[in-house]
Amino acid sequence: SHSPQITGTLVFTVFTAALGSFQFGYDIGVINAPQEASETWTIQISFWRFLSVIISHYEYVLSILLEDRKAINNYTINSTNDLPTIPHLRDSTPATLAEEETTESTSLITMLWSLSVSSFAVGGMIASFFGGWLGDQLGRIKAMLVANVLSLVGALLMGFSKLGPSHILIISGRSISGLYCGLISGLVPMYIGEIAPTTLRGALGTLHQLAIVTGILISQIVGLNFILGSHEHWHILLGLSAVPAILQSLLLLFCPESPRYLYIKLDEEVKAKKSLKRLRGSDDVTKDITEMRKEKEEASGEQRVSIIQLFTNSSYRQPIIVALMLHMAQQFSGINGIFYYSTSIFQTAGVSQPVYATIGVGAINMVFTALSVFLVEKAGRRSLFLIGMSGMFVCAIIMSVGLILLNKLAWMSYVSMVAIFLFVSFFEIGPGPIPWFMVAEFFSQGPRPAALAIAAFSNWTCNFIVALCFQYIAKFCGPYVFFLFAGVVLAFTLFTFFKVPETKGKSFEEIAAEFRKKTGSAKAPKAAMEMEFLGASETV
């Protein structure tokens, strides 16, 4: 094939879109950033470590509220109090009262905290459903602009959280940021997949994940104590995502709209050609237009596909199940468990400042995702996914063995450490970035928005399930928890091996044909056209 056309406009556009993913990463990472976290609170919710800085602020607000209540109400309920309180019996002794007061406030703080964390995930789950729909209604660029409004509002609420009732501002800010991240997790992969030339689709698609892990890393660095992780500055830390939001909004005004959207959805061939010429940097865009015309002919037969139709219609069922499996594989592979455990493992291994080791994991995260950008067009998606999963399987077993023998052999903690670093690097070569853009490749223009919505939703939901359940599973299984993950990873590896087709360098139609080949349901009228495609793809 001819060399890919990397043009200034393409680079600029993909960079701008990826700023959205960067904010997504920053918002994920920022909650576990401040340093006191790992030492003060042992309860950890997934990899959002308890943020003791904010918690101490909650405590401070609460203590004032509790003082007020004592003074005014003689221990009865204060109706204006915006926190759920337990009415105290008047005749209880002051000692028990004080005890009740502390347990009450601790459980309250824990509850508020869980709310700050889960409100983000719930926001993401809800919004991920609407990402594709919004992109269809407004166009990809306008949809991302509208999403940025949410990001800004969320950031401002959190940035100014010291001025008002902080817990309410933080929880609402987090949920609005969650809404933004949910929209973005569907919109960015869709937009990048639609503007990228076929030969670069994978490499550019991986940039979504690269931007996410960069965001996580930056939030970890900025969250160090001596930068912004301290008492005086945490609200700035939470509100900082406003900066990329504003930057992205400005840059989006100069980005070309997705030619596929213009041509296939709006029937604006002239505008689509203009957009393509900008993206490809040449006046000859016939190849792209021809491919889009074929897609359009297919799409005219299939109107906008609803989410239910993806499962009922036999030609979509196979790809949507595979797509959901890839996303489940990403979340259930134990990557969050690794992050959850990393601090304690680094402490056991005698790393004096575990927070730096965690940042090290973040950096490795980034390096290997960057590596994947280059590998994904050379090695292919399927093989990278399989390599990544197999590597993670081995690492999970080593991890478990290391954790079990930890008390008998001191050097086992180093084995576990190495296993962490390797596990993360294998994850970022395959299962990390690939599900996001592979789903966009599985579907033609008609079902793509619905498919991406379902995929993003399943990703968020699985993330939420892991976040809620992991601490209980970890308590129950102890060090054997990674054997469980190894089993899960093995199952997904086998599924990938038998069911997932290679999509590298194929047009969207050839990919659809691949799936029909996998299910072995070639439909009679399409058979001739399909044979032609298969013939074409065999000869490549």
List keywords for this structure.
single chain; 540 residues; mainly alpha; Growth Hormone, Chain: A; 2 domains; two-stranded antiparallel sheet; 24 helices; 2 strands; 76% helix; 1% strand
Stretches with pLDDT under 50, minimum 5 residues: 34-50, 73-95, 522-540
Computed CA radius of gyration, to the nearest angstrom: 25 Å
What count of structural domains?
Answer: 2
Helix content: over 70%
Sheet with most strands: 2 strands, antiparallel
Q: What is the number of strand segments? A: 2
Q: What's the end-to-end separation, in Å?
A: 9 Å
Task: Note down, in words, how this protein is organized.
76% of the residues lie in helices and 1% in strands. The protein has 540 residues and is mostly helical. The chain folds into two domains: 1-74 and 105-255, Growth Hormone, Chain: A (Up-down Bundle), CATH 1.20.1250.20; 305-520, Growth Hormone, Chain: A (Up-down Bundle). Strands 1-2 form a two-stranded antiparallel ribbon. Helix 5 (131-138) packs across helix 6 (140-159) and helix 7 runs antiparallel to helix 8 (201-222). The relative contact order is 0.12. Residues 34-50, 73-95 and 522-540 have low confidence and may be disordered.
Short structural summary:
The protein contains 24 helices and two strands.
Chart the SSEs and their pairings.
Blueprint: H1 8-30, H2 36-40, E1 44-45, E2 48-49, H3 52-73, H4 94-128, H5 131-138, H6 140-159, H7 166-195, H8 201-222, H9 234-239, H10 242-252, H11 259-265, H12 269-280, H13 286-301, H14 307-312, H15 314-332, H16 335-348, H17 354-378, H18 381-404, H19 412-429, H20 434-442, H21 448-477, H22 481-499, H23 508-519, H24 524-539
Antiparallel strand pairs: 1-2
Helix pairs in contact: 1-7, 1-8, 1-10, 3-4, 4-7, 4-21, 5-6, 5-7, 5-21, 6-7, 6-10, 7-8, 7-20, 7-21, 8-17, 8-20, 11-12, 11-13, 15-20, 15-21, 15-22, 16-17, 16-19, 17-19, 18-19, 18-22, 20-21, 23-24
